[in-house]
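FAQ: What does the model actually see?

It sees only this:
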Amino acid sequence: MNVAQLALLSLADWCVVDLVEEDKPVRRAAVAHVNPAKEALIHEFQRYPPQLNSENAVAKVIRSGRPEIFPEVSDGVLETFVSEAEHLRILCALGAKSLMVVPLIAQNRTLGTITFAAAESGRRYRSSDLNLATELADHAAFAINNARLHSEVQEMNLRKDEFLAMLAHELRNPLAPISNILKLLQLQGAGDPDLRRSLDVLGRQVQHIIRLVDDLLDISRITRRKMALQKVLLELSTVVTHAIETSRPFIEARKHQLSVSLPEEPVQLVADPVRLGQIIVNLLNNAAKYTEPGGHIWLTCMREGSEVVIRVKDTGIGISPDMLTRVFDMFTQMGQSSSRSQGGLGIGLTLVRSLVILHGGSISAHSAGLGQGSEFVVRLPAFTEASPAPSPVATKEEGTSGRHLRILVVDDNVDAATTLAELLSLLGYEVQVVHDGPAAVELASAYQPDVVLLDIRLPGMDGYLVAQKLRQNLRLSKTIIAALTGYGREGDPSRFQEAGFDYHFIKPLDINVLERVLKNKINEKGKS
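And it is asked to produce this:
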């Protein structure tokens, strides 16, 4: 029930709610009449909100913040409520024997007014009625203010998410050519140990920036409940091995010893392999960061009954008892001085907990206190015959001895496109580059590439439309089309699929992931 209807039940034959917002005109937000036959007429009245700087009785109450009561309404009083003849005609037709205008005030701000009118009932307002109307207005103002605050928070969250998405894109664009050049230099300077060490340091720092951007976006998705898991039936050891390889450079840079214990028998679970790997990587990196150089980290994985249990233990700085209760809270830093020197945003463990919960699991933190190390224990449902039917386990790619693939790179970022083409050429692929949508469509028809790496934000024609046009070309029916974006791994899967994309890669492109796709394409060509 809205404010206007509530007023009708207690005080008025008809009423009007006017609201005002900063730097905006007065808005006639609601009207109501006890007589259904006059509903159309009261809605006509809604077309005439008062001007805030006028001598209108409602405008005066908004400016002063003090209620006004008119026990007996004369023609002169009615004229103070209108701005033109048609407005006065409607007001006279509605009838008003007695009027009250009460401000809506919350947190010392006037949000608007409620106008109470007595007509057919013949009621005459008195000071007791004004007191009751003021009490009703106070409750209404509280509700309106809360609704506005909620709306403002929602708007701020939306703008924050849009900003984070744009920030990620703008950061990934320069990171793409940097990553490509690093890979080129690593391939070309593999024999120089000093150069190799320097490039490894640069590579780790680039990956650190990428992980920070990804974590920020993932937290944003989770808080908006936009995180979608791509669950498949997988073998735990495979995901753990990949996660260790991802974290190993950071662990070795800190000169830690890593001990790994995996189950002898295969342990299966239904999970998103990317997100499960992210859980393990974040826990390993967290242990490495909060352990003084030369420490020891243990990663233990096993099946306990109906659960898969992953334990990450370290000899690090430990966690104080008061911190244990909030270690998974957003922006919590363990050991301020140490964490600041190591960097980080304080969202890694928050993200881990959220991802574990999305998988139907739980996570706990344990520590004997500061200086006593810590242990994090993740418990996830193991796969059983009663588990929901998962997607099939992904098959491994077959090896290949030759490439012989034509690749078309389409990106308006000239540096990113050029360096990616140089890297692919160095790896033995035949590559062509264009920097806008129409040129991509034209060259693809003549070049007939096996693979198209296609940026989405292109001049002349965006990547979605380019993909659609390529799919309409029968000569390109077997061409793989992969989207290149800087907006994160979630994107809009249905839109990518409808446009005809086979894959969605995030900038900067992980060349190892691309190589697996290319090898599959080579094998496919070899069998055809």
